[in-house]
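REQUEST
  id: r-88c1
  op: predict_structure
  target: LysO family transporter
  payload:
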Amino acid sequence: MFTVIGVMFGGIAIGFLLRRQRLSWIGRVITVLIWVLLFLLGVEVGGNRRIVEGLATLGGEALMIALACVLGSCVLAWGLWHWLYKRKGRSV
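RESPONSE
  id: r-88c1
  status: 200
  body:
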C-alpha cells in the first residue's frame, strides 16, 4: 500500500519538476503501458482455474447487472424528462 502511494507521489514530484518540458511522447508510452497491463491481466485471469470455470456464471451475472443499469437509467431519464416538462407547464 505504501509502495503504491510512494510511487504515485514520486510521479507527481517528477511531473511537477518537468512541468515546463514538452513531453509529447508520454501519451504513446501510457497507451503502451495500458495495453501491457491489460495483457498481463488477461494472462492472470486465464491462469486462474476458478475464474475460468466460473466464466458462465460471471457472464450471466454481468449481463443481468448491465441490463438492470440500462433499464434503470432509461426509466429515471424518462421520469426526469416528464418531471421537467410538467414543471414548466409544457406539454410532452
